[in-house]
Amino acid sequence: MGKKIIIKNARAIVTCNPEDQVFYDSDLLIEGPQILQIGKDLSSEDAQVIDGREKFVYPGLINTHHHFFQTFVRNLMTIDYPNMLVVEWLDKIYRIFQKINSEVIYYSSLTAMGDLLKHGCTCAFDHQYCYTRAGGKELVDRQMEAAARLGIRYHAGRGTNTLPRSQGSTIPDDMLETTEEFISDCERLIQRYHDPAPFSMRQIVVAPCQPINSYIETFKESVALARSKGVRLHTHLGEGENVIMQERWQKRTLEWCEDIGFSGPDVWIAHGWELYPEEFKRMGETGTGVSHCPAPAVLGGFPILDLKALEKEKVIVSLGCDGSATNDSSSLMDSLRMAYLMQAYHSKERGGCLSPYELLKIATVNGAKTLGRNDLGSLEAGKGADLFMINTGALELTGTLHDPKNILARVGVTGPVWLTMVNGQVVFRDGQLLGVDEQALTEEGEKVCTRVLRQECEAFR
Questions:
Q1: Radius of gyration of the chain from its Cα atoms, rounded to whole angstroms
Q2: Is residue 225 a contact partner of residue 217, using CB atoms and an 8 Å limit?
Q3: What are the strands, taking DSSP E only, across 304-450?
Q4: Contact 397, 229 (CB under 8 A)
Q5: Cβ distance 269 to 292 under 8 Å?
Q6: Alpha-carbon gap, residue 113 to 325, rounded angstroms
Q7: Topology (CATH level 3) of domain 61-370
Q8: Could you give the CA distance from residue 420 to residue 116 in angstroms, rounded to a whole number?
Q9: pLDDT tens for each residue of 352-393
Q10: 397-405 CB contacts, 8 Å cutoff, 24+ apart
Q11: DSSP 3-state of 357
């Protein structure tokens, strides 16, 4: 199998398993990529020992919506998302995006992935739709290179935009592709990278960017390809585009997607804050999931997604950071805290708030379901050894340690974790990403950002 690792005497192991078990003062034994056993006084013969005293252990968080390429378009007050409509913001920000090349993709992906790992995320989906004349086609390839370098489990969403501005989209010509180009590259990426095996470290998702910025044929061909190859589908939906869709197609976006087959248990959407309760019901019936991204909703002043109502309709809700241009952070731990506070804000009128622990399961168990990963999402024998640990021996946590299930979102544990493990490999510990020279990567990335974007784009001035 592989080398053995044992976490000894952990103060608490929060499993997120179907019984919601928490093991106190216990051990967690790992062999190769998977968990073998959880319990007290496990044999540690031939195993590398990680001292779990004063540590809480959790399943790795799973991020189900992001745009890594946007990590180099942060902290720009010249394009201020909170003071713009989504369509207005897209029109301005795309003028920067068209400058992005493969170097930006590589270093911005490293930046986002590193941030995710430092904050307990072990498996990440990214929606990469920024295909420019400057960047070429092998941008997911650069992301796969970055993911392998850091050791994160990566699901790449190959996106696209095909509809020109002259026909009502917000996309510059330099960022357009044909449907044929898009489908051809999806086939190439699936052939080269998609691994459906247990404990897979990389998979491909067919993910046209959004219905208002592509031809209907792009979405129809996406459905046909994904179903023929057994991969999943993703897009943006319910984030302000419905007025345009009704004008263009005389129907709302979800109905438009359903009519062409872009719905079902192999499909999830991002955002959904514009959806109606009756649309929640249809999503539950078809098994279509939604990635809840708290940061852009708050920054944009949009309606807060009613997670209680979605849960009632049996919609699988997962958690996403979203792109840094509408978040400026790649910490899913921060998104977890924000999601809890957002739900608490409307708890009285909506019949109560999901507990912090229920939100943790959205970010773990439901994240795994969303990505089709029955080998991830909880700490159980036979599951992948994806986990993170926090140090409870910190003064600021004094008085909170009686409830490890709820502490993260309730108390606001949002800083870097003590340790992150992916597939049985420790990739972050004691403030250090392992196996890379973080300072060198930081300097290289800053140079790329300056050369390609800051010196070329008025928005940075």
A1: 21
A2: no
A3: 317-319, 387-391, 419-422, 425-429, 432-433
A4: no
A5: no
A6: 16
A7: TIM Barrel (3.20.20)
A8: 10
A9: 789 999 999 999 999 999 999 999 999 999 999 999 999 999
A10: 401/11, 404/11, 404/12, 404/14, 404/22, 404/56, 405/14, 405/20, 405/22, 405/356, 405/357, 405/360
A11: helix
Whole-model pTM above 0.70? yes
Phi and psi at residue 368, to the nearest 5° = -65, -45
Whole-angstrom Cα distance, residue 161 to residue 184?
14
C-alpha to C-alpha distances, 351 to 54, 183, 304, 312, nearest whole angstrom:
36, 45, 15, 12
DSSP codes of every residue in 175-208:
G---HHHHHHHHHHHHHHH---STT-SEEEEE--
Structure tokens, 8: 């000894």
Residue type, 262: F
SS3 sequence of 440-452: HHHHHHHHHHHHH
Q: What is the three-class DSSP state of 276?
A: coil
**Sign of the torsion angle spanned by Cα atoms 99, 105, 110, 112:** positive
Q: Is 264 in contact with 222 (CB distance < 8 Å)?
A: no
Locus of tokens 């739709």: 129
Answer whether 65's CB lies under 8 Å from 47's CB: no
pLDDT digits (tens, 9 = 90+) for 185-219: 999 999 999 999 999 999 999 999 999 999 999 99
Q: Scanning the structure block, which residue is given the tokens 């784009």?
A: 457
Note the Cα 448 to chain centre separation in Å. Answer: 24
The fold of the 4-60+378-430 domain, in CATH, is Urease, subunit C; domain 1 (2.30.40)
**Cβ-count burial of 318 within 10 angstroms (0-12 exposed, 13-18 middle, 19+ buried)?**
buried
What does the domain layout of the chain look like in residue ranges?
A: 4-60+378-430, 61-370
Q: What's the pLDDT score for residue 84? A: 76
